[in-house]
Amino acid sequence: MKQVIIFLLVLILGFLVYDFYKDWERFHAPNYFYESSDEVDLNYYDKMTVWDYEEAIQDLNTYVKLQWTANDIDVRSPEKDNLETQNAVKGYAQKLAKVKYLEKKLVSSAIHKAEGLTNAEIKKINSNDFKSKSAPDDDPKQILKQLFSDQSAISKKLGSRSALIYETQKLLVAKGYAIPLDGVFAQITSTALADFESKNNLFPDGKIDILTFEALLK
């Protein structure tokens, strides 16, 4: 009888510890917070762009933490395939694309200044570019390309988890492949990629590279 009581007490204690851990985990999001680049031009001719960049980073980080704490969704490594998760990952990709777009402008400005250009000259260059190009967040494909640029390095090994893998799986499913939508780069996803690459005259290594991703977006 005494052993049964001890067993029940240990079981209850285990449940309490697990519950405490889940509560702690809920309010400690994974260390995925985006940090501003040291290579940006903080003296950019348009101060609002610098402000927008910092604000976009704060918005992105708040979004990541909110999705984790409120909805139990890790937008960088989604584990589910419900509508709520899909919308959360899409929202993350859009916010990340905005950060990357602004960061690219500010880094480009810093490079131009290192070459001796002035703010006025950089403004003229950007004005000419704007006439021929639209912002990335106007085009869903551009958003995915930004995601590829940010996460390709962490999405190549079997067992990896990322939003890029999740989006790649969605593209493969749209092409007719019966694979899970879980954000995990498992063998079934690699095999589907290799088959797609083979059918599109690409090297069939089953990896997410730029040529394969571009072909999937077509």
Structure notes:
With 218 residues, the chain is mostly helical. It has helices at 2-26, 47-71, 83-114, 119-132, 140-151, 163-174, 187-199, 210-217. It is flat, with a radius of gyration of 22 Å.
What is the H/E order?
Answer: HHHHHHHH
Mean of residue pLDDT?
81
Number of helices: 8
- Looking at the structure, what is the overall shape? flat
User: Strand portion, in percent?
Assistant: under 5%
Q: What class do helices, strands and sheet pairing give?
A: mainly alpha
How much helix is in the residues? 55-70%
Alpha-carbon Rg, integer: 22 Å
| Count of all domains | 1
Protein name: Peptidoglycan-binding protein
Pfam family, one: PG_binding_1
In a nutshell, what does this entry contain?
By secondary structure, the protein is an all-alpha fold. Helices cover 65% and strands 0% of the residues. The chain has 8 helices and no strands.
SSE blueprint:
Elements: H1 2-26, H2 47-71, H3 83-114, H4 119-132, H5 140-151, H6 163-174, H7 187-199, H8 210-217
Short descriptors:
218 residues; mainly alpha; 65% helix; 0% strand; flat; Peptidoglycan-bd-like; PGBD-like_sf
